[in-house]
Specification:
The protein is of the alpha+beta class. The chain contains 48 helices and 21 strands. The N terminus is likely disordered.
Length: 1278
């Protein structure tokens, strides 16, 4: 039983009405319809017209007559029409130099008639035979077109020429899609299209459909022997028709390139979102800048998700056109009528272009209505035709009334009808003088709704797996098997099908569509057969029995155990503690701080992290959960922070194959595929690094500890989300996994959220249900992670965006060219050794591509593709990447994690596919050569299995040996580095630590040991720079840059000038530790020298300073470093003069002094601090109204009291916090208050998980609730 079509043909009409229409379906009746239409237009033509357009037509006709074609265009003369219609105006100018309305509208009248006639002919040829027998198509369509208010409005009333190119487009479709096919017929059609394009460039929206028609006809469906001839004919048609368009401007002095430049400049005439068109951009506002092109003094460009409106619309239309053509191709291949399908596709692409492109005028919807005309016999398209016609007329009415009303009011041009019929006009459009009104936005919204509904419904219909009854045409060759998925029945030969159609009365063929219209090409048949054989020979892994028999039962888990054992052995050297030289230094410091907070009885969700980058509230700007959990486990197990950290790192890296295995199983892959993925997971290594490889975590690697937690969770999160969406249950666990992934590593969590549509929407079944499940799961996961996300987003404006990362691989990644080069050289999965994993992943990719009908294959390919596209980064996608929320804060190079995780799954799939081929080959060899001597039938069955298994094991070991050896050597090499560093720590480390402890004991300033950008990395203890030692010793330091990158002081610290004494003051850099041979350039005293290191002291006022506020600097989280550069380069801080910061649009604060003075504003009498608790206290004496600054990064969480009374904090240059004080002695206390709403956010997350758990049982819960309500309802009389 076939599926119902998208839109059924016209219903049965009453006999009387049918007889009336039949009387019109002969030459006299059709002539009568045309005559009436002409009379109506002649009556309207002299009285109405859009004065602005007709005035230009009249002037251009006169200028063409006066100056000729060659000299029509001039730099100082406005004429934005291409040459096509100017030929018509030149002819009219010869008849009358200043044509009147009637003469100007004569070509439009002819265009209306031609459009109606071509539409009626095309509709009659497209309609099924059953409909043609029942209804007279031609008169119905003629009346529907000629008397459509939209056609009358744009032509007879307005005076625009849209019906002329539209009639030519309809002629093109008529010639290309109906009648006997010939090169001459196709060439004639394309010549008409070239003429339409020369008149109205928006006719080009049809170009993709026409290109598809010709390429399919002359290349794809042409037998292989004639394909070269077909390609030559295609080139001939393209060259001839293209030349007609390209050289249409030559008589006007426009070469082909000149014509292109002319059109480009004309498109810039109105570089706006919408030029009165009710479409998507009308929702944003009319006549707003859509790009960098200047418009009407506007500076702000409309953007969507950070992408300029013009670019965004172009991308959406391009992707939509590709998707529609792909779906139409599939539908035609399945047997849908080519002509009907392609005309409907033309409607959808034209409508999408009108709705989503910027710079659209109100009339540009007309081609959509014109293309809908031939489909009027189908109810759904008929509804779209009249709905869009009504919206089109309303759209015409507004600018017609507005501009004609202005001309009429000027009194310079006589009577001009604006048709401003009140109060109707005001009801429909609001105030006529207002550019953006609610009513106009409402009409725009309705157009968007109609577009989305039409395109979405049509697209889904095209992808339906069964042939629609009405739209299907039997275009299959005799004996060819039905191409509809899941059938496989041979189609009867042509005579039998014809007889069957005659018997049922459902003959859908027309004279122009013979039964052999599109015979399948031999090459295509051969390719399909070969593809089927390959797909059969290489099945998609995952179809194993629930419990493999015999020893195979333990095979998959044995592979996982082998991978884990390898990691445990290779990495055991990582358990030895040494001073670290990578990000582990920073992570250990975070864990020590969290442990200290736990010791004080506080849960370290937030707090002041004091010792890096002048301090910051880093725990609620970062993925701090791993630090908290590590600290808690360390206290429970009574282990030191260092040992707990090393054990967790060791176990998580070594046992990660378990997560990979269960993630694969949850995504629907079989035991062997999942275990093979687990087996290769420890072997990943890449040139760019930072991925899921040992080098990202080990001593000699990068030490990205929080990513390790995200790495463990991502496979499980993908699997749990996939299962929840697929089965409609298990939402709470999936949402909790997503929330934990976000909380442990924000980049991994971000990727997991972006992958939700891939996991949920790549399905052919239950699409609506999958959309709801995906949305439900995404919302639940984000709500569960609200305790991380809400504080992060609340204080986003105070989270720095480093300018040092701008334009680097960290923010922009490497680009497609570099990354694809690495991919094809094997550098993303195998580093520099033999590309074994890359080959396995490539095999897995091919296997999944062969089985795209399987959901799990589509999902893993979708995850890999999405991750790869994200990994390309801003280098490839430019501003398009801004469509991603928070993209300005993303480190795009980290998306390698998704490429590698999906690649591991592909490698597992490829491994199983190759293993199956080996087993098949070994079994075949045994059956042919080795079975004769088998003693028993049991032996005959077991021996081939053993031989096959042995072959797989041997070949697998040989193939993976380069990867195993490379990883083993790398991990074991780290042992030697650790042992050497332990020796350095024992010999030279105590001296450096002793010097740092002196500074720690004094507690009155920060320590500088160079920065990562100058001599800091070369001043080492063994392999570890001393600037890392400051962190290891919990010293308040300056120079260990880009650790707490969210601090507003990040770039300021990186720009520290060690030769400027004033910067030591403003950052309270009181100590320098350096090699004894390196003497500071600023005044200093020697504190102590030990070994080869010396501790120097610099005079500062400490953490507090009483200053005058003079001037104000406007800055935000992006430019604060550049904005304060002049202040930092001066000596103002040494003179106790600091400017205020007007941050992110805040009002500048007034100066505290009105005239320059050399006397200090005050002094700090004494000061103390509890840095780890975020408490700083001082007693100061102010000589005049001034500001007491605390040299710590400004944060909205700072609270300050002056003499016990609460006061307001202020932001001072370069990025520090202060408080205003009056003259006198004061006690100042700064304290950091943690984010206060965590309990409510945890409650919200718990309620979200509870709701997700109850959602699948909502009907039962409702029943229980109703029963409970009845039980406790008071009874009458009591």
């Amino acid at each position: 039983m076939t599926a119902e079509p998208l839109s059924s043909p016209a219903r049965q009409t009453t006999p009387a009405l049918v007889r009336w229409w039949r009387r019109l379906d002969h030459p006299l009746g059709l002539t009568g319809i045309i005559v009436i239409a002409v009379v109506v237009r002649l009556l309207l033509a002299p009285h109405f017209g859009f004065y602005g357009d007709l005035r230009y037509f009249r002037e251009w006709a006169g200028r063409l007559q006066e100056r000729g074609l060659r000299h029509f265009y001039a730099p100082d003369y406005f004429a934005d029409y291409p040459p096509g219609y100017l030929y018509v105006l030149a002819f009219l100018g010869k008849i009358q130099q200043s044509p009147g309305y009637q003469l100007l509208k004569l070509p439009i009248l002819i265009g209306d008639l031609a459009l109606a006639w071509c539409t009626a002919l095309l509709a009659a040829r497209l309609a099924p035979e059953s409909v043609r027998r029942r209804l007279p198509i031609r008169p119905i369509v003629l009346v529907a077109v000629l008397f459509n208010p939209a056609v009358l409005g744009v032509g007879a009333v307005w005076g625009q020429v849209d019906s002329v190119p539209s009639s030519m487009v309809m002629g093109t479709l008529l010639l290309l899609l109906t009648g006997r096919r010939s090169v001459a017929r196709d060439l004639s059609g394309m010549v008409l299209f070239a003429g339409a394009l020369a008149i109205k460039p928006q006719a080009g929206f049809l170009a993709p459909v026409l290109a598809y028609i010709l390429i399919r006809r002359y290349v794809v469906d042409t037998p292989a022997a004639q394909r070269l001839v077909g390609a030559a004919r295609l080139v001939l048609i393209t060259v001839v028709s293209g030349s007609i368009w390209a050289f249409s401007g030559v008589p006007f002095g426009l070469s082909p390139s000149g014509l292109v430049n002319f059109l480009r400049n004309s498109a810039k005439t109105y570089p706006v979102t919408s030029a009165n068109a009710f479409n998507f951009w009308g929702l944003f506002g009319f006549f707003k800048r859509d790009s960098d092109n200047f418009w009407n003094g506007q500076f702000e460009v409309v953007k969507v998700f950070g992408v300029k409106a013009n670019t965004f619309g172009t991308i959406i239309v391009g992707l939509g056109a590709i998707a529609l053509l792909w779906a139409a191709h599939r539908a035609i291949t399945r047997g849908c009528n080519q002509a009907r399908t392609l005309i409907a596709t033309a409607v959808a692409t034209n409508l999408l272009a009108y709705t989503m492109l910027t710079r659209m005028h109100e009339r540009y919807m007309f081609p959509v209505i014109a293309c809908l005309g031939p489909l009027l016999m189908w109810r759904w398209f008929r509804a779209a035709y009249w709905t869009l016609s009504i919206l089109f007329v309303l759209n015409l009415w507004y600018p017609f009334a507005l501009y004609n009303g202005q001309w009429d009011a000027s009194g310079r041009v006589g009577r001009v009808y604006g048709l401003t019929i009140q109060p109707w006009f005001r009801w429909f459009f609001g105030n006529i003088d207002a550019v953006d009104t609610g009513q106009k936005k409402l009409w725009s919204f309705l157009v968007v709704v109609v577009t989305v509904a039409f395109v979405a419904m049509y697209y889904r219909w095209l992808l339906r797996p069964q042939l629609p009854r009405v739209w299907a045409t039997q275009m299959l060759a005799p004996g060819r098997f039905d191409s509809v998925p899941g059938r496989g029945r041979p189609v009867p030969p042509a005579p039998e099908r014809a007889a069957a159609r005659d018997a049922t009365g459902n003959n859908e063929q027309t004279a122009s569509e013979p039964d052999t219209e599109l015979p399948p090409a031999p090459l295509a048949r051969t390719a399909i057969a070969a593809l089927h054989r390959v797909r059969t020979a290489i099945p998609l892994p995952g179809a194993e029995k629930p419990a493999p028999s015999g020893w195979l039962r333990h095979g998959p888990r044995s592979l996982v155990a082998l991978a884990c054992t390898f990691g445990l052995l290779a990495l055991r050297g990582e358990l030895r503690s040494a001073r670290t030289l990578n990000d582990s230094t920073f992570h250990l410091q975070m864990i020590r701080w969290a442990s200290g907070q736990l010791e004080r009885g506080r849960l370290p969700l937030d707090g002041w992290f004091p010792d890096l980058t002048l301090g910051s509230s880093f725990f609620h700007h970062y993925q701090s959960l791993p630090y908290t959990v590590t600290a808690i486990l360390g206290r429970i197990l009574h282990m030191s922070v260092s040992n707990m950290y090393l054990w967790i790192l060791y176990l998580l890296v070594s046992l990660w194959p378990i997560s990979v295995y269960w993630g694969g199983r949850l995504m629907g892959w079989g035991r062997w595929a999942a275990s093979a993925a687990a087996l290769v997971s420890p072997l990943i290594v890449s040139i760019p690094s930072y991925g899921y490889e040992h080098g990202s975590y080990t001593f000699q690697g990068w030490g990205v500890y929080t990513q390790l937690w995200g790495m463990w969770l991502l496979p499980l999160t993908w699997g749990l989300m996939s299962r929840a969406i697929r089965l409609g249950r298990g939402y709470p666990l999936a949402a909790l996994a997503l929330a934990l992934t976000i909380a442990t590593h924000l980049m991994t969590g971000y990727l997991a959220v972006l992958c939700l549509p891939v996991l949920g929407l790549l399905t052919n079944k239950q699409f609506g249900a999958r959309v709801r499940r995906t949305a439900l799961l995404g919302a639940g996961g984000l709500l569960t992670a609200a305790w991380v996300l809400v504080p992060l987003l609340t204080d986003k404006k105070y989270s720095a965006q480093s300018t040092f990362y701008k334009g680097t691989l960290y923010n922009d990644s490497y680009g497609a060219k570099v990354i694809l080069g690495w991919l094809f050289r094997g550098s993303l999965y195998d580093g520099r050794h033999l590309p074994v994993i890359t080959i396995l992943a490539a095999v897995g990719f091919v296997v999944c591509a062969l089985h795209l009908g399987q959901e799990r294959a589509r999902i893993v390919l979708g995850l890999w593709t999405l991750s790869l596209l994200l990994y390309f980064g801003r280098v490839t996608w430019k501003s398009v990447i801004d469509v991603l929320p928070g993209s300005e804060d993303l480190q795009m190079h980290r998306f390698i994690i998704g490429v590698q995780m999906a690649g591991i799954l592909l490698a597992g799939i490829g491994t199983v596919a190759l293993a199956r081929l080996v087993v098949q080959g070994a079994t075949t060899v045994w059956d042919r050569y080795g079975s004769a001597g088998s003693p028993t039938p049991a032996a005959k069955n077991s021996i081939p299995s053993l031989v096959s298994a042995a072959a797989v094991v041997v070949l697998g070991a040989i193939a993976l040996s380069p990867s195993w050896r490379n990883t083993w050597d790398y991990d074991r090499g780290g042992w030697a580095f650790i042992d050497q560093q332990r020796d350095y720590d024992r010999i030279d480390g105590p001296e450096v630590s002793a010097l740092l402890q002196i500074a720690n004991n004094r507690g009155d300033g920060r320590v500088y040991a160079g920065t990562r950008g100058n001599w800091g990395p070369s001043y080492k203890v063994g392999f570890v720079p001393v600037l890392h030692y400051t962190s290891h010793n919990d010293t308040d330091g300056v120079g260990f840059t880009f650790r707490t990158v969210q601090s507003l002081t990040t770039d300021i610290e990186a720009s520290f000038d060690e030769n400027n004494l004033s910067q030591y003051e403003m950052l309270n850099v009181r100590y320098i530790i350096a090699p004894t041979s390196r003497v500071p350039a600023v005044p200093h005293t020697v504190v102590q020298t030990l070994g080869g290191s010396t501790l120097y002291a610099i005079e500062t006022t400490g953490y507090f300073q009483v200053v005058d506020r003079v001037g104000s600097i406007s800055a935000n989280r992006v430019d604060i470093n550049d904005a304060t550069a002049a202040f930092r380069g001066s000596d103002q801080a040494s003179r106790s003069v600091y400017p205020g910061i007007a941050f992110d649009g805040d009002k500048p604060l007034p100066d505290t002094v009105t005239a320059a003075t050399d006397s200090p504003p005050g002094t700090v009498i004494n000061q103390s601090n509890q840095r780890a608790d975020g408490i700083f206290e001082a007693t100061v004496s102010a000589q005049r109204r001034s500001v007491v600054v605390l040299k710590a990064t400004y944060d909205p969480g700072w609270r300050v009291t002056v003499d016990g009374e609460s006061a307001n904090t202020v932001m001072m240059a370069p990025s520090i916090v202060g408080v205003e004080v009056e003259p006198g002695q004061h006690t100042i206390r700064f304290s950091y208050r943690s984010y206060p709403h965590y309990p409510w956010l945890f409650l919200l997350g718990a309620l979200a998980l509870l709701s997700l758990g109850l959602w699948p049982r909502r009907e039962q819960v409702l029943v229980y609730a109703q029963r409970a309500a009845r039980r406790f309802r008071p009874r009458p009389g009591r």
